[in-house]
Design goal:
alpha+beta, seven-stranded mixed beta sheet, two-stranded antiparallel sheet, binds acetyl coenzyme *A, N-acetyltransferase domain-containing protein, N-acetyltransferase activity, Acyl_CoA_acyltransferase
Length: 271
């Protein structure tokens, strides 16, 4: 089964940042995994694994929150190891650096739009975390606050209101508003099937509601039945895109076919 990084990555043609990820997401040869790269990750991984063994389903130790600066490397790792698991050294390392730089330097959004990266973190609690930095500071798609009690990033998701993958409105081709878009959903291999994906999607919905959105949408590779099942279980429904419709699609390999899925967020309003 092929997995495809969608959304920001897929949207803008992927060159050096998260909104420009490689256009061919097919798996390529792998030669090192995330453990190779940082001592910090290695120690974090042990701790996280122990927690998960103690709590086989999602435990209270899994916190889903907005990504902060200190998570950025692990976010890049999670993305690369999930969507490009077969990349081998040095490509996998370069890819991680590319994602990291993109996240820190890129991630700009059009005026009036929002975008945030969520992380599912194991082995921490926000309640006893001491933060440095300012509430208002944003660096790339990251919250500028910094904490030493960071936990271990097991899953990621991006949600935005950029509407790059929805048809534009009217003769002026304005961006559609009020519909959030989910992309780049990934859970590290060894933490899958523990409800983390569901938690990330649920948090994205909460974020979308807080932004005033009435619906939330995503594109999923038709050949990704696991992810499709996840979204269906969360109330997303496949939307038939009329043949020939000028409906923008994530820019990945041309042979990938997408299922456009959408969920209304507790509102009767039509879109
Ligand atoms: C919009 C996008 O970004 S689409 C891209 C999706 N991302 C990827 O394909 C990257 C690689 N895959 C992954 O990272 C993960 O497998 C994800 C994100 C798809 C799922 O994350 P998980 O944390 O494993 O999902 P979670 O445990 O919450 O699963 C919820 C339900 O989804 C379904 N599901 C999830 N994964 C699978 C699978 N591999 N096979 C079948 N069903 C699955 C099941 O119904 C599952 O419930 P169950 O475990 O009680 O049967």
């Amino acid at each position: 089964m092929r997995t495809v990084p969608l959304g920001i990555s897929a949207v803008n043609g992927l060159s050096i940042n998260f909104k420009k990820l490689p256009t061919s997401p097919s798996r390529v040869p792998r030669f090192a995994d995330e453990h190779s790269f940082s001592h910090l990750s290695r120690s974090g991984a042990c701790k996280a694994s122990q927690v998960v063994e103690l709590f086989p389903s999602v435990s209270p130790e899994v916190v889903v929150r907005e990504a902060r600066l200190e998570d950025s490397w692990e976010v890049a790792e999670t993305h690369c190891s999930s969507f490009f698991p077969e990349y081998s050294f040095p490509l996998d390392f370069v890819l991680r650096i590319d994602r990291l730089m993109g996240m820190l330097l890129g991630f700009s959004v059009p005026s009036g739009c929002r975008r945030t990266c969520l992380v599912a973190v194991i082995g921490t609690s926000d309640e006893d975390t001491f933060f440095l930095g300012s509430e208002d500071l944003k660096i790339g798609g990251f919250d500028g606050k910094f904490s030493l009690n960071k936990g271990y990033v097991a899953g990621i998701l991006t949600v935005d209101t950029v509407a790059d993958f929805l048809p534009r409105k009217g003769p002026l081709r304005q961006r559609r508003t009020g519909i959030a878009y989910i992309s780049n959903v990934a859970v590290r291999d060894r933490f899958r099937r523990k409800g983390i994906g569901k938690r990330l999607v649920a948090k994205a919905e909460t974020q979308a509601r807080n932004w005033g959105c009435r619906a939330i949408a995503l594109h999923c590779d038709l050949n990704n039945p696991g992810a499709t099942r996840l979204y269906k279980s969360q109330g997303f429904r496949s939307i038939k895109v009329p043949d020939g419709a000028a409906w923008p699609q994530p820019r990945t390999s041309p042979d990938i076919q997408f299922n456009f899925m959408m969920k209304l967020l507790n509102t009767q309003t039509n879109f």
